[in-house]
Amino acid sequence: MEKNYKTFTMDLAGRTLRIDIDRVGKQASGCAFMQYGETTVLCTATASDKPREGIDFFPLSVEYEEKLYAVGKVPGGFNKREGKASENAILTSRVIDRPMRPLFPKDYRNDVTLSNMVMSVDPTCRPELVAMIGSAVATCISDIPFDGPCATTQIGMINGEFVINPSQEEWKIGDLNLTVASTGEKVIMIEAGANEVPEDKMIEAIYLAHEINQTIIAFINQIVAEVGKAKHEYTSCAVPAEMFEEMKKIVTPEEMEEAVFTDEKQVRENNIRKITAKLEEVFSENEEWLAILGEAIYQYEKKTVRKMILKDHKRPDGRAIKQIRHLAAEVDLIPRVHGSAMFTRGQTQICTVTTLAPLSDMQRIDGLDENEVNKRYMHHYNFPSYSVGETRPSRGPGRREIGHGALAEKALIPVLPTEEEFPYAIRTVSETFESNGSTSQASVCASTMSLMAAGVPISKPVAGISCGLVSGDGDEDYIVLTDIQGLEDFFGDMDFKVAGTHDGITAIQMDIKIHGLTRPIVEEAIRNTKEAREYILNEIMIPAIAEPRKEVGPYAPKIISVQIDPEKIGDVVGQRGKTINEIIARTGVKIDITDDGKVSICGTDAEMMDKAVEIVKIITTDFQEGQIFKGTVVSIKDFGAFVEFAPGKEGMVHISKIAKERINRVEDVLSLGDKVTVVCLGKDKMGRLSFSMKDVAQV
């Protein structure tokens, strides 16, 4: 078959990145058939012909589809086809969205969908990275207006050495999971999970990735030059300049500044409602302007806030540029739960509840990892409408909630104890009581305290804080704000979240609305967040709870661990689980057994837990003459009785060993269900355990 498509290749971190254009998906606006090693991802970009009516935002959708055939799996469960997106797919979609969204025109309202379908996975080449690069390629070669290209690189770190675009295994075991997206000049997105990586080392890793991104951007430019389409014209949805001028006559800049200059979110929103009503009345005859009045007021408010901060160095709530809002922390807010804590920062308030469970309650994830993944620590974040004074029905967690939960989870994983140190599955749930900026980092603080209150022996407390940015015309004209509230996030250029301990960074998430950050801005943001989290840890969190409690709470399950010979695991489990299920039924405990013979017994009744431990020890002991057991008569024969002394374990008491005196019938002394004490005599000729009742006192 004659080749009628273009192929482009480059060496990327020692592996070949291959991109086929016009091989498949020709009806999409742009399509890149991506191969990195043997990982294959089909990336497409498609735009609608016309803008969507009645909206004041850019309708961008990013999809990352995990096809389980990519790793030779059939989906689990009853429905043998892929269903809703996994958590990993949602998080990957967000990482693609965040650097690309700012590069589309601000006044563009056409629907755009970026779709990435994972078709095969080579464990040495992570499909998430391929999708990130492929989305940029597909958009750049399309006719969709886009101020790219942008590129993405991932950095790992093993034994202190950086690994460029690490394999799946290196990504799991390394001390750093860093994803950096760049334009041709600046860093545009940072996402990181880290094992307390020092700030200077993190900055070094960020700019190593930025340097590699420049080689990818040069490669994409080469592709665009050869096969790129001309960008299409579109209907601008920008607010007319003459409308702004009329608005300023009705509501002066001084009046707008007075309306937004308050530390009370509700007061500010009420002020804006009054301004909106006033302008609606004046513009009642102008239907065209009325249709875009909401966007116009947003832009007016945004210009006012940015001017106040950048030129006058005044923040809407009156704080200094690096000042943190009022902070408060408390533990044990909720009775009976295993652990709880609340953290408040201004009008942002998070309560986190910790639940402990046996390891069998770990979450199992069926994804593109070749092995089934067990997730021991789960952090879930909820954002109800009342937290921002709104009303809407709860429809379960959206992408934002999943993203915020994953960020806090990432921040706390490095300080959690190992399974050997603390054999529990752990779930923390952060409930947003009130929101006005950076709830994800408040949930990091609340979760740290909640874990300590629950008796989870974390190695160090973790705190998080967010920095914002307002920039002017040049690279030198900017202000970095510490602890941004909602208004500064909405109208600012950056939300730079950093979590960590006293000793280093554990998580970063950076979102921006402009075309990138210079290195001085990145360094200042990281420096300022370190200062802020040191203050939060020392002055607020540690005074509330200085260290993890020595024991889990009274309502938390207790776990006793017993080590047995791995060859005895089958004896404890029994045929088709009969033995272990009988132990559970008798004692009410939960039992987990690992392949190395570690038995974890979990329960709340100490007596029943001790009984379960005793049963396990009996079952796994090599029986010796002279051992004494208590058991139940389960069968009576002419020649003797069988006594069950542990689930699935029986021994025989010969009629001559039942009583000191001679008896004619077993039934004269014993009945089914009798509780008896026996001593082991060894094994009889048939290999059965032989017991005696007459040689031991009956208790």
From TrEMBL:
Cofactors, names only: Mg(2+)
GO biological process: mRNA catabolic process; RNA processing
GO molecular function list: 3'-5'-RNA exonuclease activity; magnesium ion binding; polyribonucleotide nucleotidyltransferase activity; RNA binding
Task performed by this protein: Involved in mRNA degradation. Catalyzes the phosphorolysis of single-stranded polyribonucleotides processively in the 3'- to 5'-direction.
Keywords: Cytoplasm, Magnesium, Metal-binding, Nucleotidyltransferase, RNA-binding, Transferase
Pfam families: KH_1, PNPase, RNase_PH, RNase_PH_C, S1
Family as reported in the entry's similarity comment: Belongs to the polyribonucleotide nucleotidyltransferase family.
Protein's cellular compartments: Cytoplasm
Binding positions for Mg(2+) per the UniProt entry: D489, D495
PROSITE patterns associated with the record: KH_TYPE_1, S1
Enzyme Commission number: 2.7.7.8
SMART domains on file: KH, S1
S1 motif domain ranges (all copies): 626-694
Leading EC class: transferase
Protein name: Polyribonucleotide nucleotidyltransferase
Any one GO cellular component localisation term in the record: cytosol
InterPro entries named in the record: ExoRNase_PH_dom1, ExoRNase_PH_dom2, ExoRNase_PH_dom2_sf, KH_dom, KH_dom_type_1, KH_dom_type_1_sf, NA-bd_OB-fold, PNPase
Catalyzed reaction equations: RNA(n+1) + phosphate = RNA(n) + a ribonucleoside 5'-diphosphate
HAMAP family with a match to the protein in the record: PNPase
Source organism per UniProt: Kineothrix alysoides
